[in-house]
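## Example record

The block below lists the input lines for one assembly entry, exactly as stored, with component labels intact.
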Amino acid sequence: MSGPAFLVLRVLLTVSLYVFLGWAFFMLWQDIHQQGTLLSLRKVPPLSLLIQREAMPPQIRHFTQAEITIGRDPTCECPIKDDTVSARHARLNYHHGQWWLEDLGSTNGTDLNSERMTTPTVVISHDEIACGKATLTVMLAGDVLLPPTQKMPKLEKKK
Amino acid sequence: MKRFRNPPAAQEIERRLLLIAASFVFLLALALTLSPAARERSWDTDYRLSQWAGFGLWLLVFGATHIFIRRRLPDADPYLLPLAALLTGWGLMTIWRLEIWFGVRQALWLTVSGGILILGLWLPSELRFLRRYKYILLTGGLLLTALTLVFGTNPLGNGPRLWLGCCGLYFQPSEPLKLLLVAYLAAYMAGRMPLSRRLLPILAPTAFVTGLALLLLLVQRDLGTASIFLFLYTVILYVASGRKRLLGISLAGVLVTGLAGYFLFDVVRLRVDAWINPWLDPTGRSYQIVQSLLAIANGGIGGRGPGLGSPGLVPVSISDFAFAAIAEETGLVGTLGLLTALGFLLCRGMCIALRASDRFRRLLAVGLTSYLGVQAILIIGGNLRLLPLTGVTLPFVSYGGSSMLTSFLALLLLLLISSQPEDEPAPLPRLQPYLLIAGLLGLGLLSAGLINGYWAVVRGPDLLTRTDNARRSISDIYVYRGALLDRSGSPITLTIGRPGDYQRAYLYPDLSPISGYTHPVYGQAGLEASLDRYLRGVQGNPASRIWWDHLLYGQPPPGLDVRLSIDLVLQERADTMLGNHRGAIVMLNAQTGEILVMASHPTYDPALLDDQAMALHQDNSAPLVNRAVQGQYPVGAALLPFQHATGANLPLSEVDEITLYSTLGFYDSPVLRLQVTAPSLPGEDLRLSPLQMALAAAALSSDGIRPAPRLAMAVRTPQQGWVILPALSEPVQALQAENSEATAQQFLVGGEPFWQWTAMAPLDGEKVTWSLAGTFSAWQGTPLAVVVLLEEPNPGLATHLAQALLEATLQPR
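Predicted C-alpha cells for the full assembly:
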C-alpha cells in the first residue's frame, strides 16, 4: 500500500509546484489587467479650439481624442481650408498628463503665442496657435486631469 | 464602466506565494520521510526524519525575511522572495536527501544568508556606496580571489583550489566577485553616460579590469566563472552602449579563447571532448555526464519520487549535478516547473531593470539578472549535455555557502532596486538590447527544457538498459529476481533474503559456465544474461503490472522463475566424471532436443567473483567460457558416422561434404537462449562446438531428424502458472531415416542399446578427443544422444564418459 499512497503524495507535490507557478502567473496577469483597465479608464481632457480665419466667422470645435492633427487635408481631425496652411501642418498630442503642440514641418511654420515653434511644447488654456494666417485659441475643459505621473495610483492606498 | 477585482497588494501576493512554496517544500519533506516505506514496499521501516530540521529553519528564515521586507520595503517586488524560497527549499531538501551533513551546512548557510539579506534591507536604496567605492570593492574582490592562488584549498580534498578558509568554514571569493564585477561595470558605464561614439575609451579601462579578473580565473582553472564573467561583461557593455557589434566581438572572443583553451589546457580539452562524444569513454572522462544523463533518463516524465531515485550515483550530485538529482526524482514535470520558476525570476529581474529610476540601477539589475540566468543555464546545460560541463552552481539550489550568499546578495540588490514607489523610470534610449538579453536567457531555458524532454522521453528507455546504469543492480537488491530451476524443479540459482537485502545464491556452481552470474560490477553472463528479461520480470509479466510498478517504485515487478531442461542428477554425474579434465559434455533428448546435461570444465564459483574476477579473466584455461556452445574444435575423423549415413562412397567429394555439413547445421549457430559463437564457413577448416556435434548425433538416433535445441523450458507467470517457452528453431530432416538407422547399427556397441564413435583431432600441436554416442532407433525408451569432448588425447576416458552417462540414464537406479 505504501506505493500508491506515495504516488498520491508525489502527485500532490507536483500539483503544489504548478499551483505556485500558476498563481504567480495569475497575479501577474491580474496586475497587467488592472493597469490596462486603469489606462483605458484614464480620460483625455476635452480640448476645444477657437478657430479664427480672415474673412470668416470664428468657429469653435471640440475634441475628445488624444491626437489632433491640424491641416488643410480633409482627413485631419481639425481641417482648415486656407491656402497658407500646409496639408498636415501641426499636431496636438496628449501624453504625460499634458497637451503638446508640435509642428509637422509646415511650409509657413507654426507660432505659439507669436513665437516660432521649433520643439514640441506644452500648451495651456488661452494659448494662441498661428498656422499660416489661421489662429487657433486653445481652451482646456475644467480640471479633470489625473496627476501627471505614469505610475498608477496604488489601489490599496485608496481604502 | 467595466468592473474588475482589485488584485491583492504586494504584501498579500508575497504572503500567499510563500505559503504555496511552503506547502511544496512541506510535501517534499513529507515525501522524503515516507520514501523508505515506498522503496521497501512496507510500512514497517525506518523513516527519514532529519530533513524536518532543515524545513523548520527554511520556514523561519523566509518567514522573517518576508516580515522584514514588508516592513522596510513595502513596495518591493512581491515575486522575487517566493521564487527564491521555492528554489532554496527544493535545493535544501535535495541536498539533505543526498548527504545529511551537507544539508545541515546548507541550512546554516541559508540562515547566515537570510540574516545578511535582512540587515541589507536597511541599505539606502540608491546604492550610492556601490557607485562611489566601485574600484575599492572590485580590487578587494580581486585580491581575495588572488589569495586563493597562494592559500587556496578545496573542501572536498582534491580538485581546483578555489576556496579560502579553515576549520571547516570555506569561502569561494570568485562567487561574490561576480557581483562586484557587475556593480563596477554598471557604475562605470552609468558614470560615462552618454557614451562617446568611439568604443575604445569605454572599452579600455573596463577591459583591463575584466581581463585581469579573467586572467586570474584562468590561472585558477575556474573556467565556468571565467565564461560567466565574459558574458556579464558583454551584456552590460551591450546594454549600456546598444552596439550590436559588441556581441559579435564577444562571440569571436569566446571562440578564440575556447579554441586556445582547448589546445592549451587539459581541463578544457577534457570537458569539450566529453561533451562532444561522451559515449567514447563513459567510465572515465565522461563518467559524470553519462551518469547525469542516466539519472535524467531514469526520471522520465513523472520522476521516481523524492527519495526513490538513485541520484547519489552521479558524482558531486549535491552541487554540480543538483539539477540531475532533481530531474531523476521529480522527472520532466518537476524540471519544467523548475525552469519555469527560473524564467519567472529572470522576467521579474528584467522588469525591475526597466522600471529602475536611474541608469546605474538599471544596468545593475540587468547585470544581476543576467548573472542568475547565465549561471543557471550554464550548469543546467552542462547537466543536460547541451553545453560543455563547467563546475558552477545552480543559484539558490546547489550546495555551496558562497554561492548561496551571492544569490541572496543578488536578491537583496534586486529587491532594493525594485522598491522605488514614486520615482519615474529613467528614460530608455533603446529597448532592443533589453529584449535581446531577455530573449537569449529565455531561449537558453527553453532549449534546456526541450533537451531535457529528449533525454527523458525519447532516449530514456534506451539509456536505461546500458550496463553502466547501476540502477539495475540496485533494483536487484529490492526486487526478487527469478530462480533458475532444473527440469524437476530443484533450484540451480535463486534469490534469497528480503526486500532491501536480496542476494543471489548459486547452489550448483559447476554449472556456472552455462547458468552464468549476475553481478553489480561484472555484469551478467550465461543464462542469467540471456534470460535476464524473464528473471527481472520485465517480460512475462502483464504490461500493466510492469508499467504500474515502474510508476510506483521505478522498479520492475518481481522476477519470474525459469525452468531449464537440465537434469541435475545427470548433470552432477557428468560433472563428477569429467572432474579436472578440460572439456565439455552435452547430452540431449534426441527427439525433443531438450538438453539434459551441459557441462563445461573447468568451472568457477560465481559467489567468489568479487575476489577472483580478474584472475578468472586472465586464466589460460578460460573457465568463464562455456565450452559446450562457445568452444570451436576441429573435427578430424569424428564425422565418420555422418559420412556413412549419406550412403555414398567414401571418401566424400568436397561438394558432397559441404552439402552434408550444411544439412547437419554445421554452418549455422544453434539457436538457443545462450550466447553462441559464430559457426565455421563452408570451405574453411570445419570447427564445431560440442552442442552442434550433439545435435547432429541426435539425428542418427531419431530417424535422421536433427532436433531444435531447448534449454529454457518454461517460465512461471503469476497469472497462468508455468508457460512453455517454445523452441527457437524447427527440427530438420538432416539424414535419410533408413541410412541413419543403418549407420547406428554399424557403430553399435556390443551388448548395449546404443552406438558410439570416438575419434581424435589435432589442435595447435595438441589433440582433442571427440566421443559421439546415442541410442539406436529401435530403442523403446527416450532417444538420447551424447557428445563428449576432451581437450586432451584420451579416447579411453571419452568413450567411458559417454557410455557411463548413457547407461546411467537408460538404467536409472
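The longest helix of chain B spans residues 322-355. Chain B touches chain A through 51 residues (CB under 8 Å).
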